[in-house]
Amino acid sequence: MLLRILKPAFSALLQITLLAFAIGWILDSGAQSMGYSWQWERVPDYIAFYEDGEWWPAELLEGLFVTIHISLVSLIATLAIGLATALLKNSNSIVGRAIASSYIELIRNTPLLVQIYLLYFVFGPVIGLDRFSTAVLALSLFQGAYTAEIFRSGLNSINRGQFEASTSLGLSKTYTYWDIILPQVVQRTLPPLTNEVISLIKNSSIVSVMAIFDLTTEARNIVSETAMPFEIWFSVAIIYLALTLSLSAISVWLEHRLGANWKTQ
Fold it and tell me: pTM to 2 decimals?
């Protein structure tokens, strides 16, 4: 039994190792043909450094903290906007459905970069938003439009009999949604929601156009100072990959736990 579980894991690890060696060989061969000299030994100095008996975060780590901060705040706002929009689109209000549909179509059919420019240069100064708030608002509005459709599909997948049963039992709409409907929606939509979270983290790199010192901005500044584009950008890609893979693993664990909890109920 244990061998059956470990065999796919070892096989996947071997494939990843072989792929990493192949990519490394291709990159090294390309660098040699260009006459480029690798300077990987300098990369750790831009992640963390040791001074006065303590370890301190360097530029890349500080940029990662900013990226995580922006992503976390934007994620909370994204979920709130997405859920509110999905409920409006499923409501009986004609005005509510029109507002939700207009918002979704407007956001999904315009580029994120254009939305950021509009918020930063036009609407932000008018309503007094700083750069961080503008970045959070832009990411939240953009991802919220996609998240709304995920929540809406999850709500539509719930059997209408559950709503009718809750009404017949005298349960309020708030209690029905919070304790009965939403837990099922979260379980059913967890994989696509995880994809949206990963997309949110990757899209957060675009806010570097507003001179926010996130991971991408810090990397660009380091490259301009050191002329190490390959080492720095590959390191940034690895950091983003580690972050998104960790989120995927957490999602799989949560999906397993939620599934197990529903089976025992």
Answer: 0.82
